[in-house]
């Protein structure tokens, strides 16, 4: 789990002079409540791949799932470095959060059961998964589960004041 208090800095180049750095707990609240995330991975030949998905914040990391033959899962076989982004699609209001890290596979059945419960709690019973053979099992077949602990994260306050906060974690 990342440290409770990451190194937090405000980038003055992209921040209003009256802006202050956001606390990591505010970013965690946004990550916990966000419904849609954008996952960026890298294809084997080096081209980027971006796709929307749902994710849950649990035990200090973001978690998402995907079928083993989906493009994102294939990309993660060769390169586990990812970016997860969420926020508001507006220029002058809202707050965006970007999380950079390494996607690691979760296969421990106890952890998977806790994550399955977190999906139902956040997204409702349409997102009910059984846990079987180190993966989620649902209507769409088996889904691999990945965890991304933040290595670096950014918060972008938009509007009055504009602000860019960076959170750096040591791992």
UniProtKB/TrEMBL annotation:
The answer to keyword Oxidoreductase applying to this record is: yes
An example Gene Ontology molecular-function term: coenzyme F420 binding
Q: Where is the Pyridoxamine 5'-phosphate oxidase N-terminal domain?
A: 26-151
Tell me which InterPro entries the record gives.
F420H2_bilvrd_red/Heme_oxyg, Pyridox_Oxase_N, Split_barrel_FMN-bd
User: Keywords, A to Z?
Assistant: Oxidoreductase
User: What Pfam families does its record include?
Assistant: PNPOx_N (PF01243)
Q: Cellular component terms, GO, for this chain's entry?
A: cytosol
Q: Is Metal-binding found in the keyword set?
A: no
Q: List the protein's name.
A: Pyridoxamine 5'-phosphate oxidase
Q: Name the lineage.
A: Bacteria, Bacillati, Actinomycetota, Actinomycetes, Kitasatosporales
